[in-house]
Design brief:
Among the domains are: 133 residues, Tetratricopeptide repeat domain (Serine Threonine Protein Phosphatase 5, Tetratricopeptide repeat), CATH 1.25.40; 96 residues. The strands form 2 sheets. A two-stranded antiparallel ribbon has the order 1-2. The chain has a two-stranded antiparallel ribbon with strand order 3-4. Helix content is 51%, strand content 4%. The protein has 14 helices and 4 strands. Helix 11 packs antiparallel against helix 12.
Length: 454
């Protein structure tokens, strides 16, 4: 019995000791894990970057930015330096708000300056444009961010034309330019209804040439033709009607424009094939219906409505500040009417985005605006200020101005006059030099000439 008791006691001791023996390897594994973690301490910049990035992903933006900034200051030679700078800008962008968006734009631009050759530079430029795009107001409000968005998208397409984000940037640029043009059109329409032809032409004339993809450019051309017709300038009105027929053949105003040209005795141009193709593609593009509910919902949103923006065609690629004047007399007193490509041809873009189908015709100032061939030039050149002229180099893809002046907010471009007199509307000013040749323009300013037939 005593031996049996000792055996049972020994068995109990072994059973009681077995859990502790089973736990011993578990403690061993913990020590191994700790040693493994210690081996990762050789890359503290990586750990700091990953931890800060995780904070940003979970909405702890300030904590994440502080960690990224610590990485930048502590490890200036780290391979994660560029990623940390970009992550800080992304954090401001995601957090939103006017102040944060400003910080995000500054961060992205700083990244582009320091790392211009990294693939992420294109993404940073796109983010700068999108930051301004998201801050756009409606067409009848402040257009500061709208103008900045246009410039930034143009910069992106010029610097990174083959980037995968280029198609998105191109479409966003069309939408931005739709908002800009809509703002100008609304002001012009107000003056049109009010009966102020000078202010109407001053807004619409540059609009139809700079933004041919705008959804109401055909209506703007009709309004311009109507204004000049009312002021007994059928030659100038015919130029706008002809442009409407040629580049917007499927417009609701095209048939009426043809009737006007027929009544004026002016030739009716054939529709441009690329313009026809562009308008057909636009009409087949699905768009939300413009219902009362849609308009009511639009009032509740601060962002502009861009559902009518073009979905095809090359947008305007020349910055507004670099756009040449739409009414400038060239040397020798001749005016070159350059009809740029219609909206489908992308004739308003530069930088090799698309080929321009410019048709150049030279006429004397004051002659018919139907772009007929000029008669034999006389020894003296006469400028009719009631029909001011539009001239640009044939290589300028943004040309295509009628021989009419525009006013509004545009800058003034004038031609030197030998007599020093500024003639009124309807009068004729003769400019000549000592050798009998017309005097060349002495002004190099850009802008729109503020001489209107009325």
């Amino acid at each position: 019995m005593r031996r049996i008791s000792l055996l049972l006691l020994g068995a109990l001791v072994l059973v009681a000791a077995s859990p502790s023996s089973a736990q011993f390897p578990f403690h061993k594994k913990k020590k191994i894990n700790k040693s493994t973690d210690a081996s990762n301490s050789a890359e503290p910049d990586k750990q700091l970057y990953e931890k800060s990035l995780e904070d940003i992903k979970h909405g702890r933006h300030e904590v994440g930015r502080l960690g990224m900034q610590t990485l930048i200051n502590t490890y200036p030679d780290s391979e994660y330096l560029a990623k940390a700078k970009l992550a800080i800008a992304d954090s401001y962008y995601k957090e939103g708000g006017t102040a944060n968006i400003t910080q995000a734009i500054a961060g992205y631009k700083d990244f582009i300056v320091f790392f211009p050759f990294l693939p992420e530079a294109a993404y940073a430029q796109m983010q700068v444009a999108m930051a301004n795009y998201n801050e756009m107001d409606k067409p009848d409000r402040d257009n500061t961010h709208t103008k900045m968005a246009e410039e930034e998208f143009q910069t992106f397409l010029q610097k990174y034309p083959k980037d995968p984000l280029a198609p998105k940037a191109e479409q966003k640029l069309r939408e931005v330019q739709e908002v800009i043009a809509e703002g100008q059109f609304r002001i012009a329409y107000y003056y049109y209804v009010k009966g102020d032809p000078r202010a109407t032409a001053g807004r619409l004339a540059p609009l139809v040439l700079r933004y041919p993809l705008y959804s109401k450019t055909d209506q703007a051309l009709w309004m311009l033709g109507d204004e000049f017709e009312k002021n007994e300038r059928k030659d100038v009105a015919g130029w706008y009607y002809a442009r409407l027929v040629k580049y917007y053949p499927l417009s609701n105003y095209a048939a009426m424009a043809k009737d006007k040209l027929k009544a004026f005795g002016q030739p009716i141009p054939q529709p441009d094939p690329k313009a026809m193709e562009w308008m057909t593609a636009e009409q087949n593009t699905p768009r939300p219906k413009e219902s009362i509910i849609h308009r009511t919902m639009g009032i509740m949103h601060s962002a502009p409505d861009v559902h009518m923006a073009a979905a095809h065609g090359t947008p305007q690629m020349m910055p507004d500040s670099e756009t040449p004047g739409t009414d400038t007399l060239t040397g020798g007193g001749n005016t070159a009417l350059v009809s740029s490509a219609g909206p489908g041809g992308g004739g308003t873009s530069n930088g090799g985005a698309s080929s321009s189908r410019a048709v150049v015709e030279t006429v004397q100032p004051g002659e018919a605006a139907s772009a007929k061939a000029a008669d034999d030039a006389n020894s003296g050149t006469t400028e009719d200020n009631s029909a001011s002229s539009a001239s640009t180099d044939a290589n300028n893809p943004n040309a295509g101005d009628p021989p009419t002046g525009q006013s509004g907010d545009a800058s003034t471009t004038t031609e030197g006059n030998a007599n020093g007199d500024a003639s009124k509307a309807g009068t004729t000013a003769t400019t000549s030099s000592d050798n009998g040749n017309p005097k060349e323009s002495s002004s190099k300013k850009k802008g729109i000439k503020k001489i209107i037939p009325w």
